[in-house]
Design brief:
heterodimer; A: 2 domains; four-stranded mixed β-sheet; 4 strands; elongated; B: about 260 residues; alpha/beta; Rossmann fold; 2 domains; 9 helices; about 25% strand
């Protein structure tokens, strides 16, 4: 036991001095993960909110032919830029991106409108240009709104109730709660948390086997009168400590960043106070020994530091697989699924953020199954340290 | 017996002259390659025993089996009477080991590197610190003892690894090609240290393929070729037995080829 602690203390101290470990464990994941996530979320919310009331500038050719229509558009916040293009000039202006879109009013627009015949408007649009999509939709809606207005007036002058033109009415009723809606956007959060947790211990896991061997310090280490299991357990303990550190920092950072992401403006509320952050860390903790042992085992089979880095990069993807299946298949938590490590943590995190109650049985299943698999992997890692091939 | 020692000496004075490393019939394969076919040897207290042989003769594999990093397929060795096969942990306590190209931890200072091994050998904190201080001064390491080991020269690395190997007052010292990569000055100070360990009663067993080194330092020589012991005795005995004037010629005759010498 004292040997395990000796190894743990030394590994912990040594890695605190290793810039590469520190950056990956304490800076990259915890800092950049939440910051990027928060920025992306903020940006997408910003876009959704802003386009609705941003003024649209509409280039209109021969505006003098339809004064009432233009008055209607102006009333709804459309700025009109009057030009006098012919068909070719309008096409060229849109193709060359000088104007986002051009509305052309035909020369007999006024006379046809007066004689109750369909009057032509031409809207020149480049539909492959994604930037204008929302503005185009809005202009079209305003134009058809004007059309309906004229239709109602025509019907009324003929002594008919305009309501006959509206045989059905559709009401959208959205039943999702604000917290539930935000979970959709926060779906990737559990993945980022699990990923940064594993990354925090990656370099220690490599160092324990491939790194020690490459430096030539493994062989002297194996000559001390300590069981080899104790050496590797001490190293895995240090790996776990760094993973826990990384996990705690990441979750704390997420908790802080999401307070400032401005989700409530978008009608979302995030249930991510200090208590939820603590519960979230606690849910992920059983996964720590499993991850540490898994990375140590994979690193033990590699021949060099570089090779270990490559393979562990792939191992980082392992916990993401269940999450991908869960989102593709739309899985809901069941007893069987709660025994799958990393998937069960994903469910627990989601439930916590949704502010849903978590069943004690599911919680116990998640913790029990994850710890059991972890214990088996820790045992295997200990056995692997007996292999003579470990010395290379 | 061996418990007569001055308590404050850095290197203990051992008073005994029976064999303390005794290997019989060691054998080891790696895949289809036979690294060690049949090695029996004996190294005594108060003597330096050289394991001499060309590259690939099985010197390192023999030493690795002796210091219990790999297990022999057959045969056994007794370290102070403790079997490396049945009681490897107990055997390790009795050995100080400097493996081939031994590495140290770059993010720790020399002192921390040494103290770490002290703690793994179960030394008390106080004892560990005191031993480290004594070894640092013995090996003339004061200048770099508290610097990070990252930028150490080969000589400084070997000194650190050696101090680390001696931290637990081992009676028996095993070194695999210890002079590899050292400059002349460092080789000389290493030789002085090995001679001093011998004079203090330690059993020193080291491997080398460098003839001058073995001739200058060893009391006993074990010549290994193709995984077998081909001769052993004092340098003088080997010269007489082969009828050659120099140890180098004796060695060439013994291993039956001119290859692998330097």
């Amino acid at each position: 036991m004292w040997a395990i602690l000796s190894v743990f203390r030394k590994e912990f101290r040594e890695n605190l001095r290793d810039r590469r470990t520190l950056i990956s464990a304490l800076i990259f994941g915890p800092l950049f993960g939440p910051l990027l996530f928060g920025a992306a979320l903020s940006l997408s919310i910003e876009r959704g909110v802003s386009t609705a009331d941003k003024p649209v500038t509409l280039t209109v050719s021969h505006a003098e032919r339809a004064p009432n229509l233009l008055a209607h558009l102006k009333q709804y916040g459309v700025k009109v830029e009057a030009v006098s293009y012919d068909d070719a000039a309008a096409r060229a202006a849109v193709t060359e991106h000088r104007k986002p879109f051009v509305l052309m009013i035909s020369d007999e627009f006024g006379t046809r409108l007066q004689s109750s015949q369909p009057a032509q408007l031409m809207l020149y649009v480049d539909s492959s240009d994604a930037n204008n999509g929302k503005d185009v939709t809005r202009v079209k809606a305003l134009l058809s709104q004007y059309g309906q207005l004229v239709a109602r007036l025509r019907v009324m002058t003929r002594g008919i109730d305009p309501l006959v033109l509206s045989p059905i009415v559709i009401h959208d009723i959205d039943v999702s709660t604000p917290a539930g809606r935000s979970v959709l956007a926060l779906g990737t959060l559990s993945y980022l948390v699990l990923l940064t947790m594993l990354m925090g211990g990656m370099y220690l896991a490599i160092d324990a086997t491939a790194g020690e061997r490459e430096r030539g310090s493994l062989e002297p280490l194996l000559t001390v009168p300590v069981r080899r299991e104790s050496l590797i357990y001490g190293k895995m303990l240090a790996t776990c400590a760094f993973m826990t550190l990384s996990l705690s920092l990441t979750v704390t950072a997420f908790s802080i960043v999401l307070q400032f992401a401005g989700l409530e403006r978008f009608g979302m509320s995030v249930n991510f106070g200090p208590l939820v952050a603590l519960a979230l860390i606690a849910c992920c903790l059983p996964l720590v020994p499993l991850g540490a042992a898994l990375m140590t085992i994979v690193a033990a089979f590699t021949r060099s530091y570089r090779e270990a880095q490559t393979y562990l990069g792939l191992v980082l993807l392992v916990p993401t697989l269940p999450l991908v299946f869960a989102s593709v298949l739309g899985l809901r938590p069941t007893a069987a699924l709660m025994t799958v490590p990393s998937l069960s943590q994903h469910f627990l995190i989601t439930s916590l953020l949704r502010d849903e109650p978590i069943s004690a049985a599911f919680l116990a299943l998640s913790i029990g199954a994850t710890l059991t698999v972890g214990a088996v992997l820790v045992f295997i890692a200990g056995r692997l340290y007996h292999r003579e091939a470990l010395l290379g | 017996m061996r418990e007569e020692r001055c308590p404050d000496a850095v290197l203990y004075q051992w008073k005994r002259a029976v064999s303390v490393i005794e290997a019989t019939g060691l054998q080891k394969h790696f895949g289809r390659v036979t690294a060690v076919r049949d090695v029996s040897l004996r190294a005594m207290d108060g003597r330096i025993t050289g394991l001499l042989g060309p590259n690939g003769a099985g010197k390192s594999t023999t030493l690795r089996m002796l210091y219990t990093v790999i297990a022999p397929e057959s045969g056994d060795a007794l370290i102070d009477g403790v079997s490396i096969v049945n009681q490897p942990l107990e055997a390790r306590r009795r050995m100080g080991v400097l493996p081939h190209n031994a590495g140290i931890y770059p993010h720790l200072s020399a002192r921390e590197n040494i103290e770490y091994f002290g703690s793994l050998h179960g030394l008390s904190r106080k004892d560990c610190i005191a031993r480290t201080v004594a070894l640092i001064s013995l090996l003339e390491m004061d200048e770099f003892a508290d610097r990070g080991a990252k930028g150490f020269s080969q000589g400084q690395r070997v000194k650190t690894a050696l101090a680390r190997a001696l931290i637990h007052r081992p009676r028996n010292i095993l070194l695999d090609e210890p002079t590899n990569g050292l400059d002349v000055m460092a080789v000389r100070s290493l030789r002085r240290l090995l001679a001093r360990l011998r004079d203090d009663g330690h059993c020193v067993l080291f491997s080398s393929h460098v003839m001058q080194e073995v001739g200058a330092l060893c009391d006993d020589v074990v010549v290994i070729a193709h995984g077998n012991v081909v001769a052993n005795g004092t340098p003088e005995e080997l010269r007489q037995r082969t009828g050659e004037g120099s140890l180098e010629d004796a060695f060439v005759r013994l291993i039956g080829t001119g290859e692998g010498l330097s």
